[in-house]
């Protein structure tokens, strides 16, 4: 591989939290009587919590004040955190674990670049606390993807310029963020179909063949 660092998105790349985000947003939408489905849920991928809430509320017949929105986001997050309690190291796939280990054994530095403010909880649940050389998440950024801030901070934390790092993303907002920051980008899942990605992965271990 031509890169000295790899920056991984967390949700949808290292582990799958999609179903929990979906269930938590669905519970909130149902309580408020707002229509919500998996297609709308797809638009929330890579997007911050408050921006996600705005998308969920698009189908609402009334508007909400800033304070009400903050309470709704907290309600969703409380449900989500409850659901995350089910996660364990069994939710870390062998493919992901081996890919990370092999990259490290080749001297490649690895980081997390996630929009989530729950990244450290999730990493702990799946047994990856301390596995990354740097973790930059929703708590350390002020602009969410598609802004490149999260990846630029992760590269800086690795001590590498963007052109020496590869970003791995499953969300279109994340691909846009990576390219805006001057990074090459490998798309997996939904983002494997993005025409702008530098590489397409069917499994994370495809990285080892680059
Ligand atoms: C991203 C997810 O990683 O984090 C989004 O793809 C989510 O769906 C965002 O909205 C923010 O997550 P959190 O955990 O801070 O609510
Ligand atoms: Mg993602």
Largest sheet, in brief, is: 6 strands, parallel
What is the rounded Rg? 17 Å
Indicate the structural class.
Answer: alpha/beta
Mean pLDDT: 97
The figure for the number of domains is 2
Lateral strand order in the biggest sheet: 3-2-1-4-5-6
Strand content: 5-15%
* Helix content class: 40-55%
Total helical elements: 8
Shape field: globular
The level 1 CATH classification of the largest domain is: Alpha Beta
Q: Report the strand count.
A: 6
Small molecules (ligands, ions, cofactors) in the structure = 6-O-phosphono-beta-D-glucopyranose, magnesium ion
State the main characteristics:
210 residues, Rossmann fold, DNA polymerase, domain 1, 2 domains, 6-stranded parallel β-sheet, 8 helices, binds magnesium ion
Question: Can you characterise this structure?
Answer:
It contains 8 helices and 6 strands. The chain is of the alpha/beta class and 210 residues long. It folds into 2 domains: 5-15 and 90-209, HAD superfamily/HAD-like (Rossmann fold); 18-84, Putative phosphatase, domain 2 (DNA polymerase, domain 1, Orthogonal Bundle), CATH 1.10.150.240. Helix 1 packs across helix 4 (66-84). The longest helix is centred in the middle third of the chain and has 19 residues, at 66-84. It is globular. The model has no long low-confidence stretch (mean pLDDT 97). Magnesium ion is lined by residues 9, 11-13, 45-46, 170-171, 174. 6-O-phosphono-beta-D-glucopyranose is lined by residues 10-11, 21, 44-49, 52, 77, 114-118, 138, 171.
């Amino acid at each position: 591989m031509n890169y000295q660092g790899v920056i991984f998105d967390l949700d949808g790349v290292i582990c799958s939290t999609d179903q929990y985000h979906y269930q938590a947003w669905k519970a909130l939408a149902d309580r408020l009587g707002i229509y919500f489905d998996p297609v709308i849920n797809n638009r929330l991928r890579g997007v911050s919590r408050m921006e996600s809430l705005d998308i969920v509320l698009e189908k609402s017949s009334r508007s909400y004040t800033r304070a009400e929105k903050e309470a709704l986001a907290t309600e969703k997050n409380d449900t989500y955190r409850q659901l995350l309690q089910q996660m364990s190291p069994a939710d870390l796939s062998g493919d992901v674990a081996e890919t990370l280990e092999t990259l490290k054994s080749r001297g490649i530095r690895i980081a997390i670049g996630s929009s989530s403010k729950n990244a450290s909880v999730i990493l702990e649940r799946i047994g990856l606390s301390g596995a990354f050389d740097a973790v930059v998440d929703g708590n350390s950024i002020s602009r969410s993807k598609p802004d490149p801030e999260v990846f630029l901070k992760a590269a800086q934390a690795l001590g590498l310029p963007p052109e020496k790092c590869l970003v791995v993303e499953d969300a279109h907002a994340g691909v846009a963020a990576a390219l805006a920051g001057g990074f090459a980008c490998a798309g997996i899942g939904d983002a494997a179909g993005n025409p702008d990605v530098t590489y397409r992965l069917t499994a994370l271990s495809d990285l080892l063949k680059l």
